[in-house]
């Protein structure tokens, strides 16, 4: 017996040669209206529902054509028991008054937990919770992703053809609850996109960016946390995909991905599933691995704390070189006390973590 030999590789199919033969090819230029006429009846409609909708987060009016949507919606993926994580975010980079002044809205998207009954009280108090009727579990991450895309489609995109263009310049950031987000740098990045005169309408419709993962392989070891069987995924590589831990897209594109999800077989892991959706719709994933880094962690940063804080203080002093690729918008590994500590260092405040 050869140690480390994986016989599964003998039976894998070629993704590049064979996947397209089974997928539904979605021409996004033909699905603006009458989707079912073009693609037929949807094959993958989730039966899940919203337990807490928060449907007016984007605004509410009787006249949909005069509804002023927030420029940016931030959807934070969180487990129902992660109240401390949510509270530290509310105290720091997502302070409600700060978001409102910048025309930004934020919601935490939760699943269910039979041992946590306080979510409704939390929602009533902070008015920033969306909850779906699926247990929080990493194997169900694609369910939560599809439900977030559904929520954007149903409650945060234009329902009028005459105003659908506003979704080309309105955005949604998806992020996990253990991240620090530099909101000022994010809005500066969006400002530059909005004022890019060379960007086409098609590019705005399909805009999605983040940390691009290329040519990764399925994990076939039964003991691996992210094990995938040949039955679930028989191919040798995954499509290129954007890390789902922190990425940005136009709300127009979020609607396209939601439509695509109705015709694409569900896959366990949300980042891979989003890659499959992009592949089926021939949507270009924009590589932005340093600005939307999901591999940097607090361990690396605290090893170089002095250099890190010096660099960030320079950023907050408005000495930003936008052409530099060394200033990440999102940094992984900051939660609870550690997030509050970072915020105090960067903004010279004296917040005390409480919950």
Automatic annotation (TrEMBL):
Its main location: Golgi. InterPro entries: Glyco_trans_31 (IPR002659). Its EC number is 2.4.1.-. GO terms for cellular component: Golgi membrane. The keyword Transmembrane applies. One of its GO terms (molecular function) is UDP-glycosyltransferase activity. It is a single-pass type II membrane protein. It comes from the Eukaryota. The keyword Membrane applies. One of its GO terms (biological process) is protein O-linked glycosylation. Keywords: Glycosyltransferase, Golgi apparatus, Membrane, Signal-anchor, Transferase, Transmembrane, Transmembrane helix. It is found in: Golgi apparatus membrane. Belongs to the glycosyltransferase 31 family. This is Hexosyltransferase. The lineage of its organism: Eukaryota, Metazoa, Spiralia, Gnathifera, Rotifera.
